[in-house]
Here is the input.
Amino acid sequence: MKFKTFVTSPSLENKAFLALMIAASLAFVWILLPFSGAVFWGAVIAIVFMPIYVWLLRKWKQRRTLAALATLFLVVLMVVLPMTLLTGMLVKEGAALYQRVQSGQTNFVRYFEQVVAVLPSGLHDLLKHFGLTDVSELQARITEAIGRGSQMIATYVYSMGQNALDLIVGFFVMLYLAFFLLRDGAALTRRIRAAVPLAPAHRQHLAVKFITVIRATVKGNILVAATQGTLGGLAFWFFGIQGALLWAVLMGFLSLLPAIGAGLIWLPVALYFLVTGAIWQGVTLIIYGVFVIGLVDNVLRPILVGKDIQMPDYLVLISTLGGMAVFGISGFVIGPVIAAMFMAVWDLFATAREEALATPEPREGDTPAGPATPEA
Here is the structure.
């Protein structure tokens, strides 16, 4: 190919434009990385609260700015303020628990000794084989773990104080972005769909799947977590367990994991009651955990999460764990979204392949059938 032909070819122009577009997109993502969390949660807030915005928009005769501001006010009132109050109470409860452990008022080693003392001899020998019955070693391990935990908390609190300005800026970036995504989200969505080089039906299917999964994951998981945490905290308060609020928050957080969630907290407590002679407390807590706390997970989660995202529980569990391992707390949304998009893309591919294989290809020499002509 001659040089003049090469430099003036449309193919070169298309490749150059594609390279420029990719470079500009990567540079844009790079400059957003410091506020990636704020951008992500701003988009999530806009997607989750979009139905409220649309309803207000109809009520207020298409006044977009006013409807977006009102929706944002509801976000602050329903989400931000309760989370701020809960965080303050949780910090206070955690500090009180740490002081009780340090003073010996709460002694996990003593609880462990009480459990080991009533175990069958076979199980006791098994624990002894793994060195779990050595009280002094166990005390050293617990003390070391508490020390590491307290150090991590102190470091985290110190870093929050040092980065207070970044937190405040990120918070306002999140709300600012959510406002504009609410107000101008429909036009932006149409523009993005038009730019995506996919078939219109595929674009529509993937967009609906993406929005559905985010709404179902956020609303469903948060509602399940809040319900299970509240029910578990009330049970712990009823039985006089210290730090009920802290354990309630832990149960709520762990309930993000389907099936196993809150049981990781209330089941060991129930077993402790049983092995230490508090039979009615242990039996009551097990019944309450299985048929009340567990019922929330078995009834609400399939309705709010599984029904909409159409994923089996094991895939939701694996994608949630993997997402949180990679992306932190935001992973409980990102993980299922990636899994759902993975399933949707491969489902589209499989469907298109089946349709292509079911349609016979024309053989060489075949001519398309035309209208019959009468013989002469």
Summary: The chain has two domains: 35-195, 199-355. The CA atoms of residues 230 and 248 lie 6 Å apart.
